[in-house]
Each structure stands twice: as C-alpha cells, then as structure tokens.
C-alpha cells in the first residue's frame, strides 16, 4: 500500500506541505483538507480587498482547489471540517455537507493556522463586530461595512493599521484604540512608532493609545459604541484586530505537546511530540535565531517554509531542517512603509542584552535625484560584541522595506556593525545614496570608531 | 609640530579620507588638494545632469569647498594640480593659477581616481568627441551636444547605457557600439544582458554588438562618422564610454608599487609600498572577497569606505581594515533596473569554479497587488559546496536593485543556497510576494532538494 500523507489546513503552511510531499514522493496519496472553499489563500490581502485595491475575492488565493488537484495530483477536500484526530488508528474524522467520513494517514501534518484572539469583554458577539480571519469571509465583511460611517478598530498592530487604511479608503471615520503606549508595540520601539502615529493622525484617524477596551455597547442588537477604560466612543461597527492565537484544538486532540508559547512544540524537522505527526505554520512555535528561544511569530513566509520542511520530511524522512526566524515583518500605512527585523530594543533588553542603539534619518536616493525621500532607521546592537540585534525602518519609498532583508541576513549570520559598514551594498543615484542608509546607521552606532 | 595629512583628490575617496582624518585627529593639519573647482563630486550623476533630470551642476557635489573648510576645518585647495610628489622630502608640488608651491606632509593619501581609457584609434581628438570624466566639465558637454542630432556612444557598459538614456531624453538618435557579444559584458551573463538589449532596441537605439571602433572620421575638424570593423555610421558627436583606468601617474612619481591589475597595490590598511603613503578609491586595487584575488572595480561606495579607512589609519595608525568588495553594482536604463553582485557565470568559470545556475522570472509583489512587475534573476552557485557565488537582477521595480544587497551580504558571509532559502526575508503584498524572488531562485537552484 502506498503512503498516505494527510494535511489539515489549506493555507500557506498546509498547501506548501502538501505540494512538497507530493513532489518528493509522487507515489504517495497526499490529501489536503480545508474548512473553507479556498486554498493557498492570502489573509494578508484582506485589508486590500476591503479597501478596494484588490477587486476580486478569488485574487486572494494563488491556486484554486481544482488546479491543485489536477496539476499537482493532490486530493483536496474543501468545505470540510476535521472533527477529530485518532492517533492510534491513524485517521482523521472529516465532516462535509453534513456527512462524516474518515481519512487514514501514515503521516499527518497539522497546519490549522491561527484564529483571532477576541478580548473577553461584553458585546463582542453583537452584530457589527468583526474579526479578520479568512479571505473566504472577506466579501461578507465588505458588504456589512457598506453602511457603517464610523468604525472602531481595536488594536494598533499590523492588521489594525492595515484595516484603518482600508476603511479610510472607503470613506469611513476611524477610531483606533491601542492598549499599548504606542502603535505596533511588538514591532517598533517608541522612536519609529511615533513617526507612524504622526501619519495616522495626519490621515484623520482618531487615535487612542494607552486605552483598553472594556465593552462594546449595543442597542437593538447592533453596535452603538465602544467603551474603554478612558472613554466611550460612538461607532457603527467594530473591527477587533486584537491579535491572533494558535488554532491548537485539533493538535491537542492528537495529543501533541504544546510549547512554552502555547503553540505546538516542534523540532527543526517540524515533528511534534507524537510520532508521524508534524505541525507547520501559525499553529506551531518557532525558534528565534538571535535568542535561541521559542517564539510564536505567525507570518506567511515562515509558514510557507515550515510547510515545505514538514512536507519534505513527511514524504522522505528528515531531509530538511527549519532553522527558525529572526522576526522580520513588513507593513505599510498608505505610502509609509514600515519594516523590522531581529529584536526591538525592548525585546533585546528583556532578553538580557546590554544594547546600544542609533536612530538616524537618511535619504533613499542621491540628494540630487528626483523623488528622493527620507528614511528613518533604528539599529540595535549588543554592546559587548558589536553584533547587530535588530533594526526598524520607516520611510515613504517601498525600497526601504527591502533594507530590512539585508539586516535580517546580517543578523542570521551574526554580523557586527563593522561587518555591515563594510558590506558591499549597491549604489546608483536613483536607488540609493552612495552611503547606504544602513551603512550610515552602522557608522553612527560605532560612535566614531569607523 | 602637529601632524600634516595631505590628500590628493577631492572625489569620493579623497574627501572621505580627509574628513575622517580630521575627525579622528582634530589637531592634525589636513589638506585636500583638488584639480577642479568641485569636491565630493558625483561623477555617477553626470548622465542625469546631461539628460536634464538633475538641473544644476552644483547638485553634483555634496559639499562646497567652503563648507568643507569651515565646517570640517580642512584646508582645501581647489583648481590646484599636484605636479609632483617628493617622498624623500615628504612634500607635494602644487600648481595653482600659474603659481607653484609646496605642501609638506607626514602622511599622504593618494586618491587621484580614474581617467577615461581612450581607444587607440584615429580621430579621438576631433571636435565632437567626448569622454565623461568629471562633473566640473559636464556643463560644457551639455552645451556642446545641443546641436548634435545623431550621437555614437562607444561602449555598452554602465556609463554607455546611462549616457544613451540621457541622450535619448534630449531627443538625440543613438548609435550604440559595443565590442563584446552583449551589453554590460563585465556585469551580466548572456541571459539577462539580452533582456537589457531588448529594452535598448525598443527605445529606438541602433545597437551594434560585436563591433569594434576603428576610426572616428572627421571633416573640417569635426566628427562626421564612426567606423567600426563592420560598418561606417554617420554621426554628429561621439561619446567614448570605453572604460576607465586608474589615474596612477602621481602614484608612480611617489614610487609606490603597482599591483597585478595596474592600479596601486595596497594592503587592508590602504597602505602602499611606500611608508606613510596611502592610496584609496579608484586609483587603488581591491581584494575580491569571493576569489581572494586582487581586482580593479572602480566604484564610489567602495571608494568612500577605502577613503574612510585610509583617513582613519593616516590619522591614528592601523585602526581600521578594508575587507574588500564582492563586485556589487547597480545601473538603470529608463525604468529597467539592473543590478549584480559576486561573480558572473563567466567570471566564476574563469576563476576555476564548477558552477550551477538558475535563471528565473518572478513577481515583485503579491500577484493580486497593483503595480506588480516581473523580475528576472540569475543566481550562480559553486556546485561542490552550494555556496552562492553571484547574482544578477533585471526588473522594472526599483526594489529589485535592493535584492542584490541581500545577495551581496549572503556572499560575503559564505551563505549557501539553503541558507538563503531559509533567510527570514520580509513579506507584504505591496513590496514582495510571499515567496521572495531570491528564495525562489535558491529553491530552483536546489533542483528539488528544497
């Protein structure tokens, strides 16, 4: 009998795992089970669908289930909910259109992703309160929001900012509520978060930092207002962008061990504590390559690679290792591009590093070249070794988002600020100044040593 | 008596050396001697001044001589030609406005840059034949070219392409003559050079590859035509973009040793073979960090850093080392951005590597995001170790120029394609696809291993 590899979840990690497993073991029967009608979907695109930049819901998926079946030879069950996992019998119980059936596996990949973390306050079930979850539901959200005039966005992280942009594009008024003392508190330290906040205010957002949601107030079953510890704001709808959590329920049914982060514990082969059961993507925790500690940073690029590793190893057995992440992330607010990698100053200090930092302003092109803009960079180093620990970038040229990739690689390779200063980065008046902003940041951090 | 540090040449390397020396040793008397009336000038900007993108000649310098004198405390001699170097007496002989004077030094930095390499053919001295040399002469060139209708650009490397763009912007017809079998032959292998050639043809350039200039034909003392080994082309002016060579005359007067490349030999401290004499920038050769061999790659970012190292060591003695370059370079032709780093396939093979390569086409953003464009990447690896040796990139989004910085750092750190595949590069639909094009290239190069 040929090997059966079953993957639960058709998002980035799951689809990647299924495709990889089939590619490396064409004789295996690879089955992908997805709860909605979309696979290879891109939740990161939802704000741009809501805002009208992406026109068609179908665009938020790379492949249709049919393409995956026909071109890849993978059996795809859509609209199919896995109700249980039986590890002893090596089977999953699936429900589709009210019917239950069983799918047997030799290897199982759990890629059930993340789900919104809803704050435990009254009113979250009211009509007009939304979480951003899956492209499959995005059209419904768009329809529902049509008549809303004023919307509260709760949470000032990536999704909150992106949804604020989208809703402004739709002509809504926005109240943005963030319980932290700054926007993007997990991504940025104060210096660059303040630049983002200025932009948010300039675009007309009513911004409330240091405020925690206490209640969503309804009337006639619909949202009337949001109450925080500091005020009550009348709104017609509420977007809860209050973070996500790993969707671990099925994993716990399979009996796999959870890690310190609350996500599924995996080793570098993406193996869980249960034999023949792998986990990949947002449901799994990752190793941070700077601290060596387990972290839960649910992002698509890493999910894709973890899926690749899980699928390869499920098909061939320990052929590939996932080395972990350094916390690279990118977002934008209108034309302000925001990117970060490594540890923020706050994270570095919390991890016991003694840090030095530089916050610089530089140009993105030669000073004489049209379209030159400003970029703000914060760079953080370990003061005992000079090793780069992290960087944050904010600027109006999309090219600055790419700076962070250079720093990500530098951090992965343990580069010091001196190594970065001497990096042979490219120059052309139209794309960078002759002293690249990253090199300026490294030089400023050296405090005159170079 | 305080230390005297004399720097010959006010370009990238020289100005950088002088500024650094003064900063690290404020008591030193630092003297910068420049032949023209501009310092910290940007020859890379000349094509954009000619093409009308940069309006003012002054914009092609970062600092005026006055600023350098007043703000940095550096003595600047402009319009001053160093006629000789006397190493025994530690003096340079300077001529300005017909007067000669002597400047004594304890440390000397030679930063005389590069000069055009003019092909040894008849007619190069005719009126209407130009080399691109120094921003100080750019206005004259612009004036002279006003009445030219058809211009031959000889040389299809960076400068030739950039000048072709500039002259097209001015409405000229262009005959572009390159003796190699492709455009940018030292930068790109055939695959990506062909994409550039298609664009050049589409913009209406009359392109002649595999043709070598034999004569510039004049009449009444002015240019009438360019003759190659294959044809004669009537033109009104000729731009010789036939490469540059190190401007070593003064260095040889100082008795310093030249290296295998013909440029001044320096060690990692930028010391020449003569005690207390340093060289930096285009006049000096560099170490290639992939091959370990000496190369001559005259580019501004490296010149700046070499100047920094020479200035620091002249002021303080062996405080900083220059590790060399990996051959990163960027250019553009209209909206086609072209970048490369490391070794081309041709260079890798010539250096004895057994190589494997991938040439891929990918998207620069999420497939659903507006403004998504195509990028072509060639990546070259050492087939025995998997180590990345080089990459070339061509695309219409300026962000692709930044890709090459990631690869430059990867190459400097000896990364394999597997290391690059697992690099934590950033993702946002507006700035990159979820599978970053560099990661796709690494994956394709793995031939199914990941």
Features:
homodimer; 450 residues; alpha/beta; FAD/NAD(P)-binding domain; 3 domains; 5-stranded parallel β-sheet; 26% helix; 28% strand; globular
Q: Helical segment tally of chain A?
A: 12
What is the helix content of chain A? Answer: 25-40%
CATH domain class name of the largest domain in chain A: Alpha Beta
Give the overall form of chain A. globular
Please list the strands of the largest sheet of chain A in the order they lie side by side.
Answer: 3-2-1-7-18
CATH superfamily of the largest domain in chain A: FAD/NAD(P)-binding domain
Could you say which structural class the secondary elements and strand pairing of chain A correspond to? alpha/beta
- What is the total number of structural domains of chain A? 3
Q: Give the integer mean of the pLDDT values of chain A.
A: 97
Model regions low in confidence, pLDDT < 50 over at least 5 residues of chain A: none
Terminus-to-terminus distance of chain A: 65 Å
Largest interface: A-B, 75 and 77 residues
CATH topology of the largest domain in chain A: FAD/NAD(P)-binding domain
Characterize the quaternary organization of these chains.
Answer: homodimer
In words, what does this structure look like?
The structure is a homodimer of 450-residue chains. With 450 residues, chain A is an alpha/beta fold. The mean pLDDT of chain A is 97. In chain A, the strands form 7 sheets. The first copy, chain A, has a 5-stranded parallel β-sheet. A 5-stranded parallel β-sheet of chain A has the order 9-16-10-11-12, covered by helices on one side. Chain A has a 5-stranded antiparallel β-sheet with strand order 21-22-25-24-23, with helices on both faces. The longest helix of chain A is centred in the C-terminal third of the chain and has 17 residues, at 300-316. In chain A, helix 1 packs parallel to helix 8 (300-316). Chain A has helices at residues 12-24, 46-50, 65-72, 138-145, 158-169, 190-202, 249-253, 300-316, 345-350, 399-412, 417-421, 437-445; strands at 4-8, 29-33, 75-77, 80-86, 91-96, 99-104, 107-110, 114-116, 129-131, 150-154, 173-177, 206-208, 213-219, 222-228, 232-234, 237-240, 244-246, 277-279, 286-287, 294-295, 329-333, 336-342, 355-363, 374-382, 388-395. Chain A has 12 helices and 25 strands. Chain A folds into 3 domains: 4-42 and 61-115 and 245-316, FAD/NAD(P)-binding domain (3-Layer(bba) Sandwich), CATH 3.50.50.60; 118-242, FAD/NAD(P)-binding domain (3-Layer(bba) Sandwich), CATH 3.50.50.60; 330-445, FAD/NAD(P)-binding domain, CATH 3.50.50.60. The N and C termini of chain A lie far apart (65 Å). Chains A and B meet through helix 1, helix 8, strand 21, strand 22 and helix 10 of A and helix 1, helix 8, strand 21, strand 22 and helix 10 of B.
